Amino acid sequence: MDVDTAKYITFIVTKDCQLACKYCYLVGKNSKERMSWEVAKQAVDYILAHESDMPEEAVVWDFIGGEPFLEIDLIDKVCDYIKIEMYRRNHHWFNSYRFSFSTNGINYHTEKVQQFIKKNSTHLSIGITIDGTQRKHDLNRIWKTPEMERGIMPKPEEERGSYADVVKNIPLWLEQFPDDSTKVTISSADIPYICESVLHLYGLGIHEVNINVVFEDVWKEGDDSLFQEQLMQLADAIIDGGYYRDYACSFFAEHIGKPMDIETENQNWCGAGMMLAVDAAGNFYPCTRFAAYSLRSKKPIIIGNVHDGINKNLLRPFLTLDRFTQSPRKCIECEVASGCAWCQGENYDAAHTETIYERSTAICLMHKARVRANNYYWNKLYRKLELEGLREDYDENHRKSSQTPC
Amino acid sequence: MLTYLIILLDDTSVSFCHADNPRCERRLIPLDVLRQGIRFAMMENLTIQFVYPDYPLPADYASVIESIDHAKIKPTVEAADVWVTDKPFEGEVDVPVVLRITRQELFAQTEEISNLIGHAPRLNIVITDIGAFTDDDFERYRALLADISARVETLTKEGRMPWVSLVTDRMALTKMNNCGAGDSSITLAPNGRFYVCPAFYYEAPEDSIGDLEAGIDIRNRQLYKLEYAPLCRRCDAYQCRRCIWLNRKLTREVNTPSHEQCVVAHLERNASRTLLANIRKANPNFLAETKIEEIDYLDPFEMKREK
Ligand code: SF4
Ligand code: SF4
Asked: CB-CB: which of A312, A325, A353 is closest to B228?
């Protein structure tokens, strides 16, 4: 199935997680908010009953948290119900669906999760988040303690990293999902570890690393130069080490860093509004980033609920957004605009008014640094391939990044 | 470009637009605020529209008001430049009339309203519950517009040209002519603060866009402009009010209209198209510059989605 044209439906099944990652954007995490079976069922019923409103050829039923596998019993029941109902209703998604998970990987090996995987293996994708080397991973992804739930943070020497608990499940995961990728998020403190982390993940056998800088305004002066330096090191390592054929890293992409035409390249970047998220209370959101727990400074944007359905007027701004209307002039005129991403939720959170139409450009210098390193990467790689007479072979056979915008 | 300053003379000043004024406690604009408002308008080259309450103002206000060229929007017809009413009137009126009415009242009084046409130089019909239109209401509205158009056509054949906003405005327009709140007009409230329009003051007085001392500060000001409204900038329902307040209320965004607003405006547009074609049968050069093409949608959103 083609995930690029699929409808993404996200169930926020719990806000609980075993970890307390320092960069976690779930600012309002609350371990009590677990989705009930009734709410999940009502959401499925509503969605499948409104087939004409969701004409996308395929669907990705996405389960997130917190940590979704903490709710494996619920998820198993919901997935069974989805399959039965799609069949019973002769729904056009019946043969075109996927269940998708982003997990911290800690419970991956447990019996219940493994049974679920066996049952749904042909319609499943699972991404395990591992941030890179142990040093880098344990910097952020630490175990939550009962004290933390009461707001008391541990001293640095008391923090317990989760690397060892995740990495032990990587071989099993790769055996079951050899083509799946991992997602890495880079914040200011992570920049020095980018090169070693990507190479480490390749070394673990992960062939695709989808890596992004956070959209939030966290960047310090000089971060862009450091970032560029790391990406240049990574470019050298990938090319000199011969990884470029069988491994992919989303930082390097040929299409980025070009000016964009205002008429023909005016699309929105982010898929908010084309996705649908539902939380434990049965509220619908244009994407999970608009739920209260993801927002720092704005009210959630709730577009309906499982009882009353979706208010289509509230979806209109999301579905009519284009690049021109939300971008400042510097972005419209930018010489390296292509590939410069944004997140509608972060735009909304950072905006000066209650709007989704004000693009945040906190990543501006980081994008420009990425473009420079990216240019370096392709110039170096293509020259090498040409000298070796392997350019055509590369174009046809190399592994491409499968990253979707969010 | 900012061109108009609407000054609410009192908290109970009459509403002349889509939003109802919920305030019933009088609060007259202080005289010094009024003076400062006028001064501001003079310095910024703005045309003032004073909006009156339903009681007589103290005598000393008149001389201040008369110190500048302006228009008076009033809930009584006497000395008004625009008279706002919520009921069909009787007899002849020599000023433009704004008739504020709910859709149900409009449907129930089609005949009375048709009979008003030609008895005032201009009749602006403002529907106060556009957001509540259902699919059935759209059909009833289509029929109502046909009735009103028939009356306009009859009078036009008699050599009179009555103006009824719902069906004649689009005939006379060759480009967008919308409410312009936040772009071409702003409102000064009795508390001395500026607002996007009176409705923003009624709803959230804390949500001002500046005051007389600090001046105007409209955040994300570009979003009030037509070119920053992805649906409207391509639309040719030029007569549409494009109500910024309704946009914010129904879609949360000032630049994004609701389905209801778009369909209502397109039913009017299409009624104007038919009316124009009918008038041109007898008078081929009537409003020769106007073109209204045939289209197969009522909500530009559907067009955009298809693309
Ligand atoms: S944020 Fe910066 S790099 Fe990105 S498009 Fe705008 S100006 Fe260009
Ligand atoms: S009909 Fe809709 S798209 Fe057209 S101007 Fe009015 S509100 Fe905008």
From this structure: A325
